Amino acid sequence: MTLRRAESENARLWASWVRDLLDSQPEQDCAELTRLAASLCGTSLGLVTLLDERQQWFRASETLKLGDTPREIAFCAHAVRQQGLFVVKDSLLDNRFVNNPLVAADPPLRFFAGAALTTPDGHVLGTLCVVDTTPRILSAEQSNALEVLSRQVSARLELRMQRVALEQALTDKEKATGALRASEELFRAFMNASPFLSYIKDAAGRLLFYNRAFAQRFGVSEYAWLGRTDEQLWSRKLSKSVRTHDLEVMAGGRMVETEEHIRGTDGTLSSLRSFKFPCNDSAGNVLLAGVAVDISEEVAHKAELERYHRELEEANDQLRRLAVTDELTGLRNRRAFEERLVMEFSMARRRKRELAVLLIDVDNFKMTNDKYGHAAGDEVLRRLGMILRTTVRLPDLPARYGGEEFVVLLPESGEESAMGLARRVMQRVAAEEWENEPVTISMGMAAMNESLVNGYQLVELADEALYAAKRAGKNRVMVHSG
To answer: Do 408 and 350 meet the contact criterion of CB atoms below 8 Å apart?
Structure first.
């Protein structure tokens, strides 16, 4: 009975995925991938289909939904039963489909090729498929491209559902907070008029972050306590109590409300109502986050609340200024590249996928600047950025790494695929009609291997290969040899 209940729960979650996807607008990048699939395969239409136990839904773009069909007549029901690509070259010559209503329709469905879309735990959502009203044969390259695109669509649908789950969790938290405020009117009024203290600790109890209100409350600078543990800040009795409670919160995996009494450096005893909850950093390490309200003082003056709002707005303005786009080239900047590098490296290592990096440097760039001026140098960088943007694949990330250096992150690409892109870029650079004199570039390439522990090491290997290309005479691509 336990196994049956587990299977029933899995089926319920699977059906919930499909319903949520049907109720939402199609992701723009998924719609672009269906158009790309149709274009690569030379068919009239690319589709994302969704399946549940009874029905099939066609979903092509933000505006086009072709309705639904019973699962028993769905071509996609066959596609999800096998590994790899399912292809029907001519439905009128296939006994499984010759009497299918979709084949008998006007216009008839004569050609179908589809690959399954799956959830992270293996449940089938539907397919990415291309269809046509005339028979067709896909080349090996087209078949491979369709399978690659299906994995991209699966990943995007997964991200969509994760975003929905997060939004639901935030909604639930807001409802819980609303119930608390409704039952404690006096406390709610105090919260509306008082600043709060926030902090983050690692698993060992060291402070990784605290805000200005926290620092002001305990009479320290904004950095003085970073890296310190509870034992270094509070009395033995208090630190033991705080540490025990922190560990219980991290082990419990949920938000916990508690009241703590802490004596500051000036001897003042502070009573804090804390809301503690576990969270994870980008490496998956469990951290403890807390938001605390000082309940030892009377309601803060309205001016203090306004000051807090100004500080919050200044912080938001600062975050908005941390742009992820390089202004000169229009490519992503180094910060954006490194954030994506961490994510892609983790995913590649976890799922045993390929990953490669190309590091590019403009040859003799200083000479160009000195001879023709910085405006000419900037134009070289802009045009090289355009070449990269229009040459890489859809999942690749080209970025300006700094100065005259560029970098390209290539998910699901090994040495052969990365070298193919490098050669195409070299050809584009050589064919470009540069304003003053021909421009050449040197490139270093490195691919994922099991000895690497983080993405930055992969970039370092590509950098070593780049310098090898420079030493070998420039205007060439070198692969890190191991």
So the answer is: no
Q: What is the pTM of this model?
A: 0.37
Cβ pair 48, 26 in contact under 8 A: yes
> In the numeric block, which tokens belong to residue 264?
């500051």
Q: What is the pLDDT of residues 364-380, one digit of tens each?
A: 999 999 999 999 999 99
CATH entry 3.10.310.70 includes domain 10-163 = no
Largest CA distance in the chain: 88
Bridge-based pairing of strands 477-479 and 111-118 is unpaired
3-state secondary structure of 143: helix
What angle do the packed helices 374-389 and 365-372 form, to 10 degrees?
130
Output the CA–CA distances (angstroms, integers) from residue 147 to 142, 167, 255, 285, in the order listed: 9, 31, 42, 33
Q: Return the structure tokens found at 94.
A: 């296939």
* Integer Cα distance of 304 and 310 in angstroms: 10
Q: Number of H helices and number of E strands within the chain?
A: 15, 16
Question: Residue 12's pLDDT is what?
Answer: 55
Locate the domains of the chain by residue range.
Answer: 10-163, 185-321, 334-479
- Of the chain, the end-to-end C-alpha distance in Å amounts to 53
Residue 292 CA, distance from chain mean position:
30
- Residue 409 near residue 399, CB atoms below 8 Å: yes
- Chain position carrying tokens 């319903």: 19
What architecture does CATH give domain 185-321?
Answer: 2-Layer Sandwich (3.30)
Q: Which amino acid is at 107?
A: P
As its CATH architecture, domain 334-479 has: 2-Layer Sandwich (3.30)
- How far apart CA 58 and CA 65 sit, in angstroms, is 6
Q: Cα(14)–Cα(12) distance, rounded to whole angstroms?
A: 5
Residues near 93 by Cβ (< 8 Å), separated by ≥ 6? 135
Tens of pLDDT, residue by residue over 287-314, are: 988 888 877 754 334 335 556 667 667 6
DSSP 53: S
CA 40, CA 152: separation in Å to the nearest integer?
A: 15
